[in-house]
C-alpha cells in the first residue's frame, strides 16, 4: 500500500512585514479567510519507553477551526520527513488524516494516547489550487480557563504552504506536481518572504 504525503514549505517573519506579505498572498490566491484554530497534540502512552528504545514516537494531532460554528475535529499524524537528498526543495512526509464527528480528544485517549500540549493559531488561510496557505501567530493557553491568550504584538508570524489534502504518489498524481505547486508560491513570494523546507 502506497503512502499518502504532505508537501510543504515554511517561513517566519516579523509583524512589521505583515501588510505586504498579506497583500501578495491575497493577490495570488483564489480565496482568503480569517482562521482561528485549536490544536491538541497527543503522544503514545508508552512514548518514554519508545524513546528509551531509540525510536521517535508518532504524535497524534487534533485540530478544530473555531471560526466555523459546528465544524468538527480533524485528526492527523505525520511520519518522519523524507530525506533532503530525496526531496531537497520541499518537506515531503507521509500523512494520515481523518475527520472526527464527535469528541476527538476522548477518541485519541481511547486509542492509547495522552495529551502532551495544546495551542491556538490565529491569522489567515488562503487557497491556491491544490494548496492551503496558513499565515498565523501562535497563541498560548490560559491554564485556568483553557482559552487562548492573544499573541503579543511582537510575536513572529509563521507561514505554512502545503497540500490541502494528502497526495498519493501515482502516475496520475505524481509528487512532483505538488512540489512544483509549492515551489511556484516560493517564487511568487521571492524578495518578500523566504519559504524553505524544514525537517519537523
From TrEMBL:
<dbReference type="GO" id="GO:0003712">
    <property type="term" value="F:transcription coregulator activity"/>
</dbReference>
<dbReference type="GO" id="GO:0016592">
    <property type="term" value="C:mediator complex"/>
</dbReference>
<dbReference type="GO" id="GO:0070847">
    <property type="term" value="C:core mediator complex"/>
</dbReference>
<dbReference type="GO" id="GO:0006357">
    <property type="term" value="P:regulation of transcription by RNA polymerase II"/>
</dbReference>
<comment type="function">
    <text>Component of the Mediator complex, a coactivator involved in the regulated transcription of nearly all RNA polymerase II-dependent genes. Mediator functions as a bridge to convey information from gene-specific regulatory proteins to the basal RNA polymerase II transcription machinery. Mediator is recruited to promoters by direct interactions with regulatory proteins and serves as a scaffold for the assembly of a functional preinitiation complex with RNA polymerase II and the general transcription factors.</text>
</comment>
<dbReference type="InterPro" id="IPR019095">
    <property type="entry name" value="Mediator_Med18"/>
</dbReference>
<keyword id="KW-0010">Activator</keyword>
<keyword id="KW-0539">Nucleus</keyword>
<keyword id="KW-0805">Transcription regulation</keyword>
<comment type="subunit">
    <text>Component of the Mediator complex.</text>
</comment>
<dbReference type="Pfam" id="PF09637">
    <property type="entry name" value="Med18"/>
</dbReference>
<protein>
    <recommendedName>
        <fullName>Mediator of RNA polymerase II transcription subunit 18</fullName>
    </recommendedName>
</protein>
<comment type="similarity">
    <text>Belongs to the Mediator complex subunit 18 family.</text>
</comment>
<keyword id="KW-0804">Transcription</keyword>
<dbReference type="GO" id="GO:0006369">
    <property type="term" value="P:termination of RNA polymerase II transcription"/>
</dbReference>
